[in-house]
Specification:
This protein is α+β, with helices and mostly antiparallel strands.
Length: 957
RNA sequence: GCCGAAGUGGCGGAAUUGGUAGACGCGCUGGAUUCAAAAUCCAGUGAUGGCAACAUCGUGCGGGUUCGAGCCCCGCCUUCGGUACCA
């Protein structure tokens, strides 16, 4: 039996003493909270605000498992703590309700995603309610609700209507740009735009047709459609963003992904690259997460250099390099196979080799590319360019180690300083030129050192790195052949999905030009479609909608927004969820400002958490939100993993199939066995090394998987079929999902909450293990029993507490306060246990001690605390009207302190000294203590170290 | 490879600033209670040696700094997470 001490067993006992019955208490209290709307919150200028936010869940069909609430419990404890200590706490919850699973389900069943999503949400809500969270549900948001996505669309429109002005270093209205263009063309415009934006004069602009002007502006708009290479996932029929692709396959589902040129809406997040990078220095987020964002943004400082073509010196190949100082070491140039100039640079002799290589490179999937990283491949185009610093002819190659999407898709290759260039040069027999006297062993491998002085390097010979770089850049700028440049790894974010279940893009197409719909026409509702599949002509599902034309005439944009659209700003909607005039009112934003504590999983490090910062910076530029960064502090909760239990099936066995106990297969090769996952409910001692299926478990397995009816089971001598256990994700397919409802039904929500906290530090991942929950249940029962008399009634003595009792209370207050502030909830639970144990030993039943103890416990065990508090005759709710106990340090004062006494650093004895003893007095008295004389015999005391209130160390020799 | 986090009893973990390592809980052992079991209560529980007092060893490994290191420094190993031809 996995649950040994279950609440049901306890409930069934008939004892005169009143037992702790969480089921009864929690149902009653829940009804009270609902009726009294305890957790409703409004802006209140008299109180400081505090905003505790959880990453809202996608309501999947499988419901919550025990891993989901971990973060919610922690943030709920903190929210309740803040509320009790005088803050006006905004603690909302909602649903990230657009998403692929509902759409896949719709494709299979025809059920509208809105319907299945609503059902899933209902289930989530029941599960969440079960755990006793203090969410203000009147502020719930759902991203798929038109009243919500109206504002997602609205923000999209603002992005379309703005461009990023580098001089102002912020987003400005596109009208400001058009005014400039009409006056002076784009010569004086210092804005973030596409690389290939042509230079135009005012006359050019003014001479353009409406269509031409609109197309030109797309080079600047912060969201815009463009032809670009995207991660196309044929199995899902949609494009994916870079962060949705892992190891060349889709993160969800693991389907292959290929590169495809498509017209897509894009978000010019690169405009904010620098601000997103430096903003990280001002927020209290986990260092590892900030580091991930920094890497993702990938700022590198270097230079852009132009290499003229040997055949036509007016045309130049531009490269980006972080080591412009190595330019004299360039022995060849490499273009990405997709580079625009490849065809024309290829000489007739090389034609065949190059076209074959281009074809081959294009056909390789991402997975293959990654698997063959070490292999050197490439082809010579037959053309040359000129190294601008020394006029030397440099052969031009193509190779797929150069990425089309980064920099200019071309690199200058310096084999002596770069390992990939070195490998390439060795393979193709190209020269490897040493450029620094400190370079070593370049016959064996590249040496990327910056030390030493330059050799073979023309104008920088004899200089150091620090001297060479500015000199070269200065020279290049003077000649117009290069400049210092900052390059980012971060790409503009593809914003289109060829899917149904997402926000419609509020745009339509007229003569090949995208236009926004009128603001008054928001929200643009998702139209009805007959099927949730692409059209016969390959259009996204929205193309199936009939009578769905803008003003009955123009084609709407048929792709929808990606999953991260709604989640990029939802935290503002909670501040003012019903507002029909704005995404949130100015007053609400002014009061609640931003998120004080954001709790969520680290898997969103570079997706949601980067995009939402980007949108926030943009909204900040428009003066629509009050802070540059929307979440001051962020904590990543760890994952609760499951245990995957499997049994060994002999692959070679036919009728009957044969399963063999894990301890009986040792001498057979692995290849002969298939691992069949079994439902963890059937397994005895699951999660332990010696977990097994007993006879009953085998029967359960057989009735669950009928196809193995009649199979043979080779058990060990104890009749056990030992299983294979491993830690992994909780998932439906592994049959290891633990539903919090079951745990709550057996132990109560308070116990579940405290147990999840007791498991360990909040940010750590750990496998779910029900072993040990008994300890927490025992604590709650004992805690409750402190309050009850021999008749089982809650009744406390009003006698004044003793000094000792006060000390226990105030020790607990100190420890819990401190640990809640540093989000160390596991040690809080220990502190409660210690206090309860001591009060039990003292047989304390004094109200002066126990009532504050109950309030202290309220954030952790909200039901039990409420029950006790009300039973003591208090009106209202402990969570709203309770007084959080104040620490009085005078109770913690010790008269004397037990000092450990160490001889040469090793503790040998302890001795008691008065708490106010002078350091000098202890130094004098310590060596004379009886207990340590034997350690001092025949030795000289060199030094006596006394750390007041801590320890004493006597150094002898 | 690079970046980040972490390695402490049989297990989850504690030790907040360099100051009694192993709090608290699980498990285990013994006892009380019981016809018996479960539950409950009490006691013990890092390893080794010893009847005991006690001693020696002990926080992944090897060095170092310090009166004193789980914590700081140097060099490794392992695990987990992220990233991956980024010029």
């Amino acid at each position: 039996m996995p649950f040994v001490c279950s609440y049901f067993q306890i409930q069934n006992r008939t004892l005169s003493r009143m037992e702790y019955k969480p089921g009864a208490i929690e149902a009653k209290i829940k009804a009270f909270w609902d009726k009294e709307q305890i957790y409703r919150v409004e802006a209140d200028e008299d109180k400081p605000k505090y905003y505790v936010l959880d990453m809202f869940p996608y309501p999947s069909g499988s419901g919550l498992h025990v891993g989901h609430p971990l973060g919610y419990i922690a943030s709920d404890i903190y929210a309740r703590y803040k509320r009790l200590t005088g803050y006006n706490v905004l603690h909302p919850m909602g649903y990230d309700a657009f998403g692929l699973p509902a759409e896949q389900y719709a494709i299979q069943t025809g059920v509208h995603p809105a319907k299945s999503t609503a059902e899933n949400i209902k289930r989530y809500r029941e599960q969440l309610d079960n755990i006793g969270f203090s969410f203000d549900w009147s502020r719930e948001v759902q991203t798929c609700d038109p009243a919500f996505y109206k504002w997602t669309q609205w923000i999209f429109m603002q992005l379309f209507n703005h461009y990023y002005d580098k001089d102002a270093d912020k987003a400005l209205p596109i009208d400001a740009l058009t005014a400039k263009l009409a006056m002076e063309g784009n010569r004086g415009v210092n804005a973030v735009c596409d690389e290939e934006t042509p230079a135009i004069s005012a006359a050019d602009w003014n001479g353009m047709s409406e269509k031409e002007q609109q197309l030109f502006l797309l080079h600047y708009r912060l969201t815009f459609p463009e032809e670009s290479y995207v991660n196309w996932c044929p199995a899902m029929g949609t494009v994916l963003s870079n962060d949705e692709v892992k190891d060349g396959v889709s993160e969800r589902g693991g389907y292959p992904v290929e590169r495809k040129l498509m017209k897509q809406w894009s978000m010019r997040i690169t405009a904010y690259a620098d601000r997103l990078l430096y903003g990280l220095d001002h927020i209290d987020w986990p260092e590892s997460l900030k580091e991930q964002q920094r890497n993702w943004i990938g700022r590198s400082q270097g230079a852009s250099v132009k290499f003229p073509l040997a055949q036509d010196e007016n045309r130049k190949i531009e490269v980006f390099t972080t080591r412009v100082d190595t330019i004299y070491g360039v022995s060849f140039m490499v273009l990405a196979p997709e580079h625009d100039w490849v065809a024309e640079l290829t000489t007739p002799e090389q034609e065949e080799e190059v076209s074959q290589y281009v074809k081959w490179a294009g056909s390789r999937s991402e997975v293959e590319r990654m698997a063959e990283v070490k292999q050197v491949t490439g082809a010579f185009t037959g053309s040359y360019c000129i190294n601008p610093v020394n006029g030397e002819k440099v052969p031009i190659y193509i190779a797929d180690y150069v990425l089309a999407g980064y920099g200019t898709g071309a690199v200058m290759a310096v084999p002596s300083g770069d390992q990939r260039d070195w490998s390439f040069a060795s393979h193709f027999g190209l020269p490897i030129i040493p450029i620094l006297d400190a370079q070593q062993d370049i016959g064996q491998q590249a040496d990327a050192t910056k030390d030493g002085r330059y050799i073979n390097s023309g104008m920088i010979n004899g200089l150091t790195y620090a001297e060479a770089v500015p000199k070269l850049i200065g020279w290049l700028e003077e000649k117009g052949l290069g400049r210092g440049k900052i390059q980012y790894r971060l790409r503009n974010a593809v914003f289109s999905r060829q899917r149904y279940w997402g926000e419609p893009v509020p745009a339509y197409w007229k003569d090949g030009v995208p236009y926004l719909i009128e603001e008054s026409e928001l929200p643009l509702l998702l139209p009805k479609v007959d099927k949730y599949l692409p059209t016969e002509t390959g259009e996204p599902p929205l193309g199936r909608a009939t009578d769905w034309k803008y003003k009955g005439e123009y084609e709407y944009e048929l792709s929808t927004m990606p999953g991260w659209a709604g989640s990029s700003w939802y935290f503002y909607r909670y501040m003012d969820p019903g507002n029909e005039e704005a995404f949130a009112s100015g007053e609400a934003l002014k009061y609640w400002k931003s998120v004080d504590l954001y709790m969520g999983g680290s898997e969103h490090a570079v997706g949601h958490l980067l995009y939402s910062r980007f949108w926030n910076h943009f909204l900040f530029d428009l003066g629509l939100v009050p802070e540059r960064e929307y979440a001051k502090k962020l904590i990543n909760q760890g994952m609760i993993q499951g245990v995957i239990e499997s049994i060994y099936l002999d692959k070679n066995s036919t009728a009957p199939r044969r399963f063999v106990s894990a301890d009986r297969i040792g001498h057979y090769p692995d290849a002969d066995w298939a691992m069949i996952p079994v439902h963890v409910d059937f397994v005895t001692d699951y999660g332990k090394a010696e977990s097994y299926l007993n006879a009953e478990g085998i029967q359960q397995f057989l009735s669950w998987r009928a196809e193995y009816q009649g199979a043979e089971f080779v058990t060990n001598d104890q009749g056990q079929l030992v299983t294979h256990s491993e830690v992994g994700k909780m998932s439906k397919s592994k049959f290891n999902v633990i539903n919090p409802d079951d745990v709550v039904a057996k132990y109560g929500a308070d116990c579940f909450r405290m147990y999840e906290m007791f498991l360990g530090p909040i940010e750590q991942s750990k496998p779910w293990d029900i072993q040990g929950i008994d300890g927490v249940f025992k604590f709650l029962r004992r805690f409750y029993e402190l309050f009850t008399d021999e008749h089982g009634q809650i009744s406390l003595s009003t006698e004044p507490p003793t000094k000792e009792e006060y000390k226990v209370l105030h020790q607990a207050i100190q420890k819990v306060r401190q640990d809640v502030e540093r989000f160390s909830f596991n040690t809080c639970v220990s502190a409660f246990m210690i206090a309860a144990n001591e009060l039990r030993k003292l047989k304390c039943n004094k109200r002066g001690i126990l009532e504050p103890m109950a309030v202290l416990l309220a954030p952790f065990a909200p039901f039990l605390a409420e029950e006790i508090w009300q039973s003591l005759g208090n009106a209202g709710s402990v969570h709203r009207d309770g007084q959080y106990p104040e620490l009085d340090e005078s109770y913690l004062k010790e008269d004397s302190i037990d000092y450990p006494i160490a001889i040469n650093g090793k503790t040998r004895a302890t001795a008691s000294f008065p708490a106010d003893a002078e350091k000098a007095a202890i130094e004098k008295a310590a060596p004379e203590l009886e207990a340590i004389q034997k350690w001092l015999e025949g030795k000289t005391i060199r030094k006596v170290i006394v750390v007041p209130k801590r320890m004493i160390n006597i150094v002898v020799g």
